[in-house]
């Protein structure tokens, strides 16, 4: 498996996430933030809804982020970045300012979906990144609609009255593809060059752009902090997370950007995390079937290793 990159020459070197932030060890969302800011550059204004990143940036008046930051309520990100972009467009700023929304899966797939959908429907020149750690991690590991089927969370417990989440993960890239916005992409912190290339394209399109980044979370997923990148790579290698991009919501433009030579069984990914340790074999087979069908739908038709 390799990233489809042409050159390392254009990889940014300047850092906008500073040392001393308050993230957990091995935090995938922090790595996503660092790579996003490196790709978009110093003329970025980032809006952060309530999330782990609200804590990571540091307590006022301190900040670990070296660009302007605005903290907003969970439902408001789409409305706020719409207004910011409209003001900069009206003022005809000489600098190209990147208006970035950086929200978790709860602020994207659940509480903030309405205002974000409106921003995309109106065609604002914004970039929105979902750093998806697959639960409400900042408030205690509660399930979101982006939590995978079968996963343990504090609101989908294991025991007499529950056996993990009973619903499959909401497909946010497909939802926003239905909005026919110019740029939609999925990314992973395990493939930083692919991730940054997609963000640079998102910045260049001029219209709404959506990038959905898969971000393993050691405390929420129950794995050692040293295994973050291994887990992220395994998600791609099993087909649990497919890396692709789409233009204008047109299925004919869908392009797989990182293609494993053979897909590993999803059991390898599930068994590496404490949140799935309770799953019986029949549910692992159910997840495998779901992944196989999704890979076929997206065009990731490669042999599956046995």
How many extended strands?
Answer: 10
Q: Which bin fits the share of residues in helices? A: 25-40%
Kindly report the CATH topology: Rossmann fold
Which sequence of SSEs, written as H and E, runs from N to C?
HEHEHEHHEEEHEHEHHEEHH
Q: Quote the distance from N terminus to C terminus.
A: 17 Å
Q: How do the strands line up in the largest sheet? A: 2-1-3-4-8-7-9-10
Mean pLDDT, to the nearest integer, reads 93
**Count of the separate structural domains:** 1
Largest sheet: 8 strands, mixed
How much of the sequence lies in strands comes to 15-25%
Structural account:
- With 306 residues, the chain is an alpha/beta fold.
- The protein has a single domain, classed as Thiamin diphosphate (ThDP)-binding fold, Pyr/PP domains (Rossmann fold).
- Helix content is 35%, strand content 16%.
- It contains 11 helices and 10 strands.
- The protein has helices spanning 28-40, 52-56, 77-91, 105-110, 113-122, 172-177, 192-204, 218-221, 228-238, 266-271, 281-298; strands at 44-49, 69-72, 98-104, 127-132, 158-159, 162-163, 183-188, 209-214, 243-247, 255-258.
- β1 (44-49), α2 (52-56) and β2 form a beta-alpha-beta unit.
- α3 runs parallel beside α5 (113-122).
- It starts with 27 loop residues before the first helix and ends in an 8-residue tail after the last helix.
- Residues 1-5 have low confidence and may be disordered.
């Amino acid at each position: 498996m390799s990233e489809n990159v042409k050159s390392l020459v254009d990889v940014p070197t300047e850092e906008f996430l500073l040392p001393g932030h308050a993230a957990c060890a091995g935090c995938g969302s922090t790595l996503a933030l660092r790579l996003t800011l490196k790709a978009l550059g110093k003329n970025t204004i980032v809006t952060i809804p309530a999330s782990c990143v609200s804590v990571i940036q540091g307590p006022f008046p301190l900040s670990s982020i070296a660009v302007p930051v605005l903290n907003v309520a969970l439902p408001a990100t789409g409305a706020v970045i719409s207004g910011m972009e409209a003001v900069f467009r009206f003022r005809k700023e000489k600098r190209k300012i990147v208006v970035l929304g950086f929200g978790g899966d709860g602020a994207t797939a659940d509480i903030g979906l309405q205002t974000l959908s409106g921003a995309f429907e109106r065609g604002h020149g914004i970039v929105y990144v979902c750093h998806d750690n697959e639960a409400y991690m900042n408030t205690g590991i509660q399930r979101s609609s982006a939590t995978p089927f079968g996963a343990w969370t504090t609101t989908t417990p294991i025991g007499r009255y529950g056996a993990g989440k009973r619903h499959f993960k909401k497909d946010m890239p497909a939802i926003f593809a239905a909005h026919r916005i110019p740029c939609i992409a999925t990314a992973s912190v395990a493939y930083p060059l692919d991730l940054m290339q997609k963000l640079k394209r998102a910045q260049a399109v001029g219209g709404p752009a959506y990038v959905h980044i898969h971000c393993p979370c050691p405390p929420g997923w129950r794995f050692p902090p040293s295994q973050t990148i291994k887990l992220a790579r395994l998600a791609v290698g099993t087909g649990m997370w497919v890396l692709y991009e789409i233009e204008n919501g047109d299925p004919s433009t869908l392009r797989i950007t990182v293609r494993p030579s053979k897909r590993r069984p999803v059991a390898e990914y599930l068994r590496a995390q404490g949140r799935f340790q309770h799953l019986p074999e029949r549910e692992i087979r159910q997840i495998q079937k779901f992944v196989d069908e999704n890979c076929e739908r997206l065009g990731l038709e490669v042999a599956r290793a046995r």
